Amino acid sequence: MAEVLVFHHGHGLTAGVREFAEHLRRTGHTVHAPDLYEGQVFDSLEEGIGYAENAGFDTITERGTAAAEGLPAELVYVGFSLGVLPAQKLAQTRPGAKGALLLEACVPISEFSGAWPQDVPVQIHGMDADPFFAGEGDVDAARAVVGAVVDAELFLYPGDRHLFTDSSLPSYDKQAATQVNHRVLGFLDRIK
User: Fold this and answer.
1) What does the pLDDT read at residue 189?
2) Nearest to 60 by CA among 48, 74, 69
3) What is the DSSP string of 26-76?
4) Pair 36, 67: CB distance under 8 Å
5) Quick one: pLDDT band at residue 67, thresholds 50, 70, 90?
């Protein structure tokens, strides 16, 4: 079983993110889900991103890096949207990473290092018409990751919802989220 570090999205550590983490635990994985917003959960994405902007995206990313301290190096990093920043940074730069699951966001490899470690598999998930993922260049960054990394997969789902994987938000898409969960579990099952 894998040990997993899950980073929440711009709303904060919502019930849906906690439910995702608990689902992984029930299947036998060890899961950590730190709160990068220090107890704050926002009803709207705009408010949550405003909080992150005021704190500083670098600060949010550093909180994620700090959350990994004291945990084993052999982690799979999972990020939901904003949480992709610390997840991707750690997967690329922290020795021992076992994998990365990037949900609804992806940044260029060059953001954190010159190359993706070839022994770190990655799966990226997003909706094909999501105004953030598809409209702001994340899907292009995801395609570049897939082109550069031996064990990399990009899954696109039909739709225009952002945060479609969070069951506690109105943007939740049960059918697509079920596919994501199935693929995530398959990914974790092959981690040694």
Assistant:
1) 94
2) 48
3) HTT-EEE---TTTT---SSHHHHHHHHHHH-HHHHHHHHHHHHTTS-S--E
4) yes
5) very high
What tokens were used for 93? 């730069």
Alpha carbon separation from 79 to 90, 112, 189 (Å, rounded): 11, 15, 18
Per-residue pLDDT tens for 38-60?
999 999 999 999 999 999 999 99
Identify the three-state secondary structure at position 97.
Answer: coil
CB-count exposure of residue 44 (10 Å: 0-12, 13-18, 19+): exposed
- Tell me the average pLDDT across 72-82: 98
pLDDT of residue 99: 98
The token pair that represents 86 in the structure block: 């610390």
- Enter the pTM of the model: 0.97
Confidence of residue 192 (pLDDT cuts 50, 70, 90): confident
Report which of 139, 142, 120 is spatially closest to residue 128, judged by C-alpha positions: 139
Report CA torsion sign: 95, 101, 107, 108. Answer: positive
Q: What are phi and psi of 158, to 5 degrees?
A: -70, 130
- Hey, is 123 helix, strand or coil? strand
